[in-house]
Amino acid sequence: APGQKNGKQRSVIKDGDNKFIVSTTLLPEGYGNGWKVVVALPESDVLQRVHRTMKQSLAISLVILTAAIVFVLLLARYISIPLVQLARETGKIKDFDLEGIHGVNSRIHEVAMMSDAVLAMRSGLQAFRQYVPADLVRQLIASGNEALPGGKEVEITLFFSDIANFTSITETLPARELMIDVSEYFEVMTEPISRQKGTVDKFIGDAVMAFWGAPIANEQHAVSACRAALQSQEAILRLNERRLAMGNPAFYTRIGIHTGFTIVGNMGSRDRLNYTALGDNVNLASRLEGVNKAYGTRIIISQDTYRYVRKEFILRPLDLVAVQGKTASVLIYELMGELEGDAAPVLRKLASSFQGIYELYLERQWEKALALLRELHAEFPEDRPTRMYMERCQNLLDQDPGPEWSGVVRMSK
């Protein structure tokens, strides 16, 4: 590649695999005619430092670029990990899994602020959950719909309970102590209801209203309600042992259970709603709770509940009753216990014997029923329904009720 400037000529010549940079300079005339100075240098000697500098610059650039990429990736990860964790935390809120939310530790101020906001939201929702059924809130959040007044008719099993002689108890306890005791009682009562997937509707004085089958469908709603009732009574028995040991009055509890189609939904105004059940079946369940007082029983269920649970528990028929406010009669049963357990053999014997006697009673065979009742009373002297039917049969034998007798007992309370 020849080039010439100011009497100097430069060129690159190749000798095999080697290249030389040749510089030719024409000397002035004073040195002689046509003298030239020729300098030839290997090209590698001239460009070696340049190549070395270029390689060093390229290596440094690659190192800087790699370090920058690693730094950016680490920074992105440093920022994204807490953001992903926050996204998971908010996803738990959508599922109403409030116990699984623990916040995110981050030195990034904005992320820390978002984490604090999520924790504050969790605390608010936890407080909110104390007033509204958790399944209902979870369903509302999942659907994305606004809660509006309205309801739908579904078959549910209703549960009512209250404390026997509660008015007398309130007269013996200071208000603050009573509030603490009743709160403990409600805690004991509702734990089995929640365990059996029931919805605690409300507390009315000393009463608990709950139901199964809404807002989450449950084909075993009647079985779940009965099991919760038995477990509640067991828990109350343990609570009463502690209360009596401390010199406090016991909270003996009566429970009524009924199954039927009921309107369930958001009742109230647009500003204040209550998720509850309304209808005649609700009233019947409430009345059955009070019927326990007449028979000395703890748990009474209706015939509509009985048809769902008759193979699951030990039960016995109690009576045909027309509760206050209703003209139609309903066959009621006592829920005595689980099919298995320490007391099951004794309870099964009592239930089986009593059922046979009750059938004789309805067939107007009162003399035969009375004889069997006396035998049963000798074996189970504390059983109040047995004593009650002994008196009934004796009264019916003493005074014939006539052909219009149907066995229906009309309750005034």
Characterise the protein shown here.
Helix 1 (43-94) runs parallel beside helix 2 (109-129) and helix 5 (175-195) packs antiparallel against helix 6 (221-245). This protein folds into three domains: 3-113, no CATH class; 150-339, Alpha-Beta Plaits (2-Layer Sandwich), CATH 3.30.70.1230; 351-413, no CATH class. The strands form two sheets. Strands 5, 6, 7, 8, 9, 10, 11, 12 and 13 form a nine-stranded mixed sheet that branches. Strands 1-2-3-4 form a four-stranded antiparallel sheet. The protein has eleven helices and 13 strands. It is 50% helix and 24% strand. It has 413 residues and is α+β, with helices and mostly antiparallel strands.
* Shape designation: rod-shaped
Number of domains: 3
Rounded mean pLDDT is 86
Q: If you consult CATH, what is the topology of the largest domain?
A: Alpha-Beta Plaits
CATH superfamily grouping of the largest domain: Nucleotide cyclase, GGDEF domain
Helical fraction? 40-55%
**CA-to-CA gap between the ends?**
122 Å
Task: Determine the structural class based on helices, strands and strand pairing.
Answer: alpha+beta
Can you identify the CATH class of the largest domain?
Alpha Beta
* Number of DSSP helical runs: 11
Flag low-confidence runs.
none
Q: Can you summarize the main beta sheet?
A: 9 strands, mixed
User: What's the architecture of the largest domain, going by CATH?
Assistant: 2-Layer Sandwich
Q: Would you report the number of β strands?
A: 13
Oligomer: single chain
Strand content: 15-25%
**Estimated radius of gyration:** 45 Å
Helix-strand topology string: EEEEHHHEHHEEHEEHEHEEHHHE
